[in-house]
């Protein structure tokens, strides 16, 4: 089991770089994802073990965004090969296939995408935003990811 305090400055974590203390939900997910990639690179013997992401409280925001980063990297082929099984939050197991389908409604609820974009992607994807989707759906999902990425470096 591995524990990660996140973002920098929470719990026992710290950074020598002052800019690391200016963060947000998506940057926190991106930073944690970078950490995981480096960790799996340093310890490849763990890549084939079942892998879950867990957290409590505000991790209810961080865990889905981090899970999205991990799955996005895996499906794009840039992710270290791992056996990502799902996420745990407050002792509740969520299957990754079911859980990641909520990232588009989550983005709308967080105010990260417009209602128009939500309606476009919903119409193109027929409620399925994860896994093997048609080309028009994927183009709309890519639009959602692009809009969400604009918030990472604020």
From TrEMBL:
GO molecular function: acyltransferase activity, transferring groups other than amino-acyl groups; serine-type carboxypeptidase activity
Superkingdom of this protein's organism: Eukaryota
Enzyme Commission number, as recorded: 3.4.16.-
Record carries keyword Protease: yes
Keyword Protease found: yes
Keywords linked to the UniProt accession: Carboxypeptidase, Hydrolase, Protease
One GO term of the biological process aspect: proteolysis
InterPro entries membership: AB_hydrolase_fold, Peptidase_S10, Ser_caboxypep_ser_AS
Protein family per UniProt: Belongs to the peptidase S10 family.
The protein's name: Carboxypeptidase
């Amino acid at each position: 089991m591995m524990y990660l305090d996140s973002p920098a400055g929470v719990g026992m974590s710290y950074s020598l770089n002052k800019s690391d203390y200016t963060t947000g939900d998506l940057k926190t997910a991106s930073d944690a994802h970078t950490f995981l990639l480096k960790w799996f690179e340093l310890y490849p013997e763990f890549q084939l073990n079942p892998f879950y992401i867990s957290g409590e409280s505000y991790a209810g925001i961080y865990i889905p965004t981090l899970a999205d980063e991990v799955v996005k990297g895996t499906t794009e082929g840039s992710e270290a090969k791992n056996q990502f099984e799902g996420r745990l939050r407050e002792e509740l197991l969520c299957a990754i296939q079911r859980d990641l389908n909520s990232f588009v409604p989550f983005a709308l609820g967080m105010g990260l995408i417009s209602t128009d974009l939500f309606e476009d992607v919903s119409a193109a994807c027929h409620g399925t935003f994860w896994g093997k989707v048609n080309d028009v759906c994927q183009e709309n999902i890519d639009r959602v990811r692009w809009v969400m990425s604009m918030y990472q470096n604020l």
